[in-house]
């Protein structure tokens, strides 16, 4: 691993107040300074001498080396949240971009050094949770690390793999609300009226699904029984019966009628997910129905389909728990589960659900009204999984890079 040099800013300077605390995680940034020579040492000198602003972070890493500027058990001013949690408790790592031109992706030597340095810090501090490594963007939406330089989730995965951690696709918790048609983030802030959403992305070319219909079975029990990594309960159902089209391993469990004929289906065949007006007669691994469609060709369409698919008002015009499935242009599957109508979570409107899925790059997306559960400890490969109430479904995806 690359050695991290220590050249500390003088204690007591404006950029090193020296407040001791126990670090809670690592926040990674890019310097967004493309000037030649703007590497780790230059940024250290800058923090030590700058007079017109208060700014500091713990480590800078470039294509050749890495320098620590502030001890890890002291706070620094890198997150832009004043005396908030990130400035106070998170270690800031800046990744230099001196070796590339604006608009170009980060060069490989710098990227590898950054992965190595962050992995060292994570292991040294005893951080082993996905949520303990975050991009600066989570604080208030700043384009940092710059979108042209690296994919945030891929960088995180590479760090954990460098740490020797075998990863399932990560479940990420985000807290959201909308204002005047614009999606807002307020992760961890429970003073704001908002909703927690748990989000997962799976490789759309390597999915294995199994549908289990077993009355009275518990979701958690079926997940363990079938060795699944992730699972959901039934789609729409009433009085113990699945509503709408439902197919498991080519066998028809239920068929749509009435207004259900206008609903869209979610299906998996040959390990690949699809959303659309699908033929239930096809030999699907799994097929279920839901409404309304939220995203079509990348555009928000929830209100049109809310009316066209006759979605009940308690789902269509009010806040509620939501389970959302979407497919991006690459064919990868995205799942989001939103809490709702609790002390801290107001639930999502369909507009918020659609805005959220659009923000994740969905090409197609629908609400399927499922519940979903993660089996965090399972690392099996090549086995089917399951989960249900009156009917249920689970899926597994081998680990893959997340974009």
Automatic annotation (TrEMBL):
GO biological process, one term: establishment of competence for transformation
Assigned keywords, A-Z: Cell wall biogenesis/degradation, Competence, Hydrolase, Sporulation
InterPro entries: Amidase/PGRP_sf, Amidase_domain, NAGPA, NAMLAA_amidase_2
Mitochondrion is among the record's keywords: no
SMART domains: Ami_2
Enzyme class: hydrolase
Ranges where the record places region Disordered: 378-403
GO terms for MF: N-acetylmuramoyl-L-alanine amidase activity
Catalytic activity: Hydrolyzes the link between N-acetylmuramoyl residues and L-amino acid residues in certain cell-wall glycopeptides
Stretches assigned to the N-acetylmuramoyl-L-alanine amidase domain: 13-160
EC number: 3.5.1.28
Family of the protein in this entry: Belongs to the N-acetylmuramoyl-L-alanine amidase 2 family.
Designated name of the protein: N-acetylmuramoyl-L-alanine amidase
Annotated organism of origin: Paenibacillus mucilaginosus 3016
Taxonomic lineage of the native organism: Bacteria, Bacillati, Bacillota, Bacilli, Bacillales
